[in-house]
Specification:
Blueprint lengths: L6 H8 L34 H4 L16 E6 L4 E2 L2 E2 L1 H16 L3 H8 L6 E5 L11 H15 L7 E7 H6 L11 E6 L3 H4 L22 E8 L8 H7 L5 E5 H6 L2 E5 L1 E5 L2 E2 L2 H6 L10 H13 L2 H4 L2 E12 L11 E10 L2 H18 L13 H8 L11 E4 L1
Helix pairs in contact: 3-5, 4-5, 11-14, 13-14
Length: 400
């Protein structure tokens, strides 16, 4: 996919004049992330995290077989002005996985998967043509799963994200990936949710429920003692409101494992990488969570078995990086980085990338509270919960 974007995609990712997306509706901008130095986050609401922590772990539970290990692979030939080199990216994927595991690609497959697994690939499709998960990265991962790994059939692989239309816009289509599943947890009237058109009502079924409601598992939910808004644009985007955020049935009932492929970008003074790519995508009704819980959602959602026991590998796509203006894609702050990161421990991965991005923001003279602990304390919280390693002194950062 080239670096060019058409006008429709440009309007989607920049929000367009007067759109709700520009105000952070779809992407969930952290409304307090740029607050004054002495400002404090809102009072933290009660959640059901204590109940989740009682669920027994499995051999695949986070932080996986390599807690605290992060592998960084850089190749300046991966992405140039001419586009992405699929061959270089494939070599980077192989080098990253084998360096992480110390095993061959086939042995690495057996470490994470069984031949009958249904494996998801969680991408970040926001910002197609700028900084979304690169198709070539996904291509290389699929090649490993199907050929060099364990011969996983195409029907056992599902590329997914929360919103179906974003997947299509980013090039994740049946034409590109024949036989591979492509699934958004929900659909919606995106033009209405973005404030571009009047309410069509096409996002409702005959009973007045969101047409995607059946895609969510009401037996598996993240509870937070804060109500969701009742306005129709919110309901269109978020499926339900109230105090419950339900997990997608794709995670609870279909996938047995998944690989998380976020992109390398900021969200205010923090980052929007591995744990946010899953924390705000696995569940519905997330808009209510941004102000009172924001980063903690990334930790607590990852503690649920649907994520904790199934997210076996994380690959952060840093072929391009974005150091400011996020989580929305913003070409002004995007730069060539040509780097991929690998980890089974998403919290060690995010702490490593957070510190790299802080240094980049300082290098580019970005004003803000980049090193304020509120922007990384959710990672230390995860270490307390036994989900990963966040102490930089305990993280083994390998550059290969």
């Amino acid at each position: 996919m080239s670096g060019n974007i058409d006008r429709r995609k440009f309007l989607k990712i920049t929000g367009g004049a007067g759109s709700a997306l520009g105000a952070g509706l779809v992407l969930g901008r952290p409304v307090w992330s740029q607050d004054a130095k002495n400002a404090t986050p809102p009072v933290r609401p009660k959640t059901n995290i204590d109940d989740v922590l009682k669920v027994p772990r499995t051999q695949y539970s986070l932080p996986g077989p390599f807690p605290g290990r992060v592998v960084e692979i850089n190749d300046p030939k991966a992405m140039t002005e001419k586009g992405v080199s699929a061959d270089v990216v494939k070599a980077m994927i192989e080098k990253g996985i084998t360096t992480l595991t110390g095993k061959s690609m086939k042995e690495s497959f057996a470490l994470f998967f069984k031949p009958d697994d249904v494996v998801g690939i969680k991408v970040n499709p926001v910002g197609p043509g700028l900084i979304s998960t690169r198709l070539e990265v996904v291509d290389a991962v699929i090649a490993w799963l199907r050929q060099e790994g364990g011969g996983l059939p195409a029907k056992n692989i599902i590329i997914w994200d929360r919103f179906d239309y974003m997947l299509k816009d980013a090039g994740f289509t049946p034409e590109r990936y024949p036989g591979i599943g492509i699934q958004g947890l929900q659909t919606m009237d995106d033009a209405f949710a973005e404030g571009k058109t009047q309410d069509s009502g096409k996002w409702l079924d005959k009973d007045g429920n969101h047409i995607s409601l059946a895609n969510f598992d009401k037996d598996t939910y993240y509870f937070a003692d804060v109500e969701g808004p009742k306005d129709r644009p919110y309901m269109c985007q978020h499926v339900v409101n109230g105090k419950y955020s339900y997990f997608g049935k794709l995670l609870t009932q279909t996938l047995t494992k998944f690989i998380n492929i976020p992109v390398f970008k900021n969200t205010g003074n923090g980052i929007s990488m591995a744990t946010k790519n899953i924390g705000y995508a696995a569940i519905c009704n997330t808009g209510r969570l941004h102000r009172p819980l924001f980063f903690d959602v990334c930790t607590e959602v990852s503690a649920f078995p649907a994520v904790r026991d199934k997210m076996v590998l994380n690959i952060t796509d840093g072929l391009r990086g974005q150091y400011d203006g996020g989580p929305e894609p913003n070409a002004q702050f995007i730069y060539p980085y040509n780097t991929l990161f690998f980890a089974t421990d998403p919290f060690a991965l995010d702490m490593t990338c957070h510190n790299i991005l802080v240094n980049k923001r300082k290098e580019m003279n970005v004003k803000g509270f980049n090193e304020h602990p509120r922007f990384s304390e959710y990672l230390r919280y995860a270490e307390k919960l036994g989900l990963g390693i966040a102490d930089p002194q305990k993280i083994k950062h390998l550059r290969a």
